[in-house]
Structures are given as C-alpha cells and as structure tokens.
Design brief:
Number of helices: 2
Number of domains: 1
Largest sheet: 7 strands, antiparallel
Number of strands: 14
Structural class: mainly beta
Order of helices and strands: HEEEEEEEEEEEEEEH
CATH architecture: Ribbon
C-alpha cells in the first residue's frame, strides 16, 4: 500500500521541479519551435531553438501567461539591428513571432524598387544565388537569395521571390520604444510591414534573442515519433547551429 508520506514527498518533488523549470524558462533560457517558413532559408519549419530571456531585460511577457506583476521593462538592454528576436505580437499580446530586427526607434524604413532602405540609404545587397527554391507554407517558391549588410556590419541572408516580390512601400518611421521587424523570407512573412497584423513592436513585447538551434526535423517528411524514418527526418547538420 502506498503511504501518504510517499505521495506527499513525490508531490513536493514535482512542485519543486516545476518551480525550477518556470524560473529557468522565465529568467535564462526558453525553447521555441519554428512552425512557419517566414525566416527561411535561415530558420526552417521543424527547427527548435533556445532563446536567452536575459538579453533585453524582462517584462511581464517574460513569464508564463504574462502576469501583470509589474509594468514596463526592467534591466533593459537595447537590441541591435540584425538580431533575431522572439516577441509577442501587438495584435493579441499572446502569439509568439520570430523575426529579424531591422529598425530601432527613430529609424525610417522603406522598400524602393525591391531594395531595402534604412534612413535613406540602400542596404548593401549581394547576390548569393538565383532561381533557388524555398518554402512558403507548403508551396515551393522561386527566389533570389542575397546577403544583406546593415550599417552595423551585421550580415545575414534574405530571399526575395522572383515574381510578385514586395518591391514598393510607404515610409515606415519607427516610434519611440518600438521596433521594426522583417522576416528573412521577404515575400512570405507577416511582419512590421503589415501594420494591422503586426506593425511596430513595443519594447515590452520582446521575449529574448534567438541564439542557437538544438534540434531540427523535417516535419513534412514525418513525425520524429517514427524513429525508423529518422534518417530522412532528422537534420543532423542543423543540431547546435548558431543563429546568425
């Protein structure tokens, strides 16, 4: 017969383990899963990564269910252009998005003839490959892939559709305490260009900086539960890869 003391001790152990897990998740590291292709070719559907919660300080959104335990952001550290960041979408303050930070407060961003302009200057764009294919949802689209270089010296990869590319825009002026984000898969990303859906992201909505992949599987080829298909589904070359 199981004693009350045995049950009590196990419940205490589970409680302490839960508290420790919440503490680590809220203060240090949180795992995230990539469900969409908006950051291809850099982040793929099925990638799992760690986000450092301490990178930009803490707000109520740093904690599970965003409890209103304090307002604003404490220990704020300004993010840098080019950082890949997880944030809560302003539309509902619940959904987690991951995008690349392009504009900081006061910046002016605009697309002209398919080129990205920051504060009136075109971002240096160097072709890497032409007529490649990446996913947009479940569809493969033809893209030209470029290396873009921000004024800070940050270099990253971005892909533009060879047809119907997002080529012209109004000028976006980033408000105080807000940021402007883009997906690396430029023609398959809901991001700050879409003001009614994402728009400018308040600093309190930042969750943390994406640092490193720890696991990746191609979910289009099957579940990781099907261990006999691991040779097809696991992307071993992406394990523990640093996120640029």
């Amino acid at each position: 017969m199981i004693s009350k003391k045995f049950i009590s001790e196990n419940l205490k152990t589970l409680f302490y383990a839960l508290v420790i897990a919440i503490f680590i998740r809220s203060i240090f590291l949180q795992p995230f899963y990539i469900p969409s292709s908006s950051m291809e070719p850099n982040l793929l559907v099925g990638d799992r990564l760690f986000v450092t919660k301490y990178s930009y300080g803490y707000s109520k959104h740093s904690f599970p269910f965003s409890p209103p335990i304090f307002s604003g952001r404490i220990l704020l550290s300004q993010p840098k252009r080019g950082d890949v960041i997880v944030f809560k979408t302003p539309a509902d303050n619940r959904t987690d998005y991951i995008k690349r930070l392009i504009g900081i407060p006061g910046d002016e961003i605009q697309f002209i003839d398919g080129n990205l302009y920051l504060n009136g200057n075109a971002i240096l764009k160097t072709i890497k490959s032409k007529n490649g294919k990446i996913f947009c949802g479940n569809q493969l689209i033809n893209v030209n892939t470029y290396e873009e270089k921000l004024p800070t010296g940050k270099v990253y990869t971005a892909s533009y559709s060879t047809s119907n590319s997002y080529s012209e825009s109004d000028k976006f002026v980033v408000p105080n305490n807000h940021y402007f984000f883009l997906g690396d898969n430029r023609d398959c990303s809901k991001d700050s260009r879409f003001l009614s859906e994402v728009g400018y992201v308040h600093q309190d909505n930042l969750l943390g900086k994406a640092q490193r992949l720890f696991f990746s599987s191609d979910t289009r080829k099957g579940s990781i539960l099907f261990f006999w298909k691991w040779s097809e589904t696991l992307r071993l070359n992406r394990f523990f890869k640093k996120i640029n």
